[in-house]
Specification:
Shape: globular
Distance between the termini: 59 Å
Number of helices: 3
Bound molecules: succinic acid, manganese (II) ion
CATH architecture: Sandwich
Order of helices and strands: HEEHEEEEEHEEEEEEEE
CATH class: Mainly Beta
């Protein structure tokens, strides 16, 4: 008897990945994924185009669009000084609502896990309704793009990061707060998946080791880009 089906079902159950980090596979339904792809098409038309941010003299392999703030290593700005100096789009209200839904659902998953008692929403320092992200970094990965292990530490506010994925599946490496090495876990983030990291996991190293081409479901396909993956991370900059 083929056991693959049962394993797959187990692999994609919502769960705590590390204390303060929760994975919610399939959080976005088909309509929500398709709708976000339509939003992405609008964001692509500006005012700031998707662009490769330069880090230490090297362009990243992902193409980024910032909403609310424009990101450059170590700084958030309202204008894209390294691209075309245009002011970025506002952070959308619907995304705040979505972020709160992710936090609330993740808190339930964490609260039900006796091994990780501090992973509930109080340990993230807020109730879901008080989550007020003000920047979204929207990253596009083509089939060869990657993101090296790093910490998200350009924000002054300790609120959790909420991540949403659409399109092709990636291998997301979620590690520890000490260094880029083991222990880490490789997770298949698929179209529609949400992931939260906050509290004791807020400064965990993480990265994307590969994209699995042509794995997107029909409603999550980025046909206008020839495939690939979009990841949105919402953060709270703590800047005025
Ligand atoms: C990021 O670390 O900012 C992006 C992670 C991802 O693409 O899943
Ligand atoms: Mn990151």
């Amino acid at each position: 008897m083929e056991s693959l089906f049962a394993d797959e079902a187990f692999d994609r159950a919502p769960r705590v990945v590390a204390d303060g980090a929760v994975w919610l596979p399939g959080f976005l339904d088909e309509a929500a994924q398709a709708w976000i792809i339509r939003q992405y098409r609008q964001w692509q038309s500006g005012p700031v185009p998707a662009h490769a941010t330069t880090i230490a003299g090297h362009p990243m392999s992902v193409q980024t669009i910032g909403l609310g703030w424009h990101w450059q290593p170590g700084r958030y700005d309202r204008r894209a000084r390294d691209v075309n100096n245009a002011r970025v789009l506002d952070f959308p209200d619907w995304m705040t609502r979505l972020g709160r839904q992710v936090i609330a659902e993740a808190a339930e998953v964490a609260a039900a896990d006796p091994q990780f008692p501090s992973g509930d929403e109080r340990a993230w320092g807020l109730d879901a309704e008080d989550y007020r992200p003000d920047v979204a970094l929207v990253n596009y990965y083509d089939s060869s793009a990657k993101m090296g292990m790093h910490q998200d530490k350009d924000e002054f506010d300790p609120a959790p990061v909420v991540s949403l994925s659409i399109g092709d599946t990636c291998i997301f490496r979620f590690g520890n707060t000490v260094n880029r090495n083991r222990p880490y876990e490789d997770i298949r983030l698929a179209s529609g998946d949400a992931f939260v990291f906050g509290g004791p996991a807020r400064f965990a190293y993480h990265g994307v080791t590969s994209i699995q081409p042509a794995t997107a479901p029909e409603h999550g396909r980025l046909d206008h880009l020839g495939g690939g993956r979009i990841n949105i991370t919402m953060r709270t900059t703590g800047r005025a």
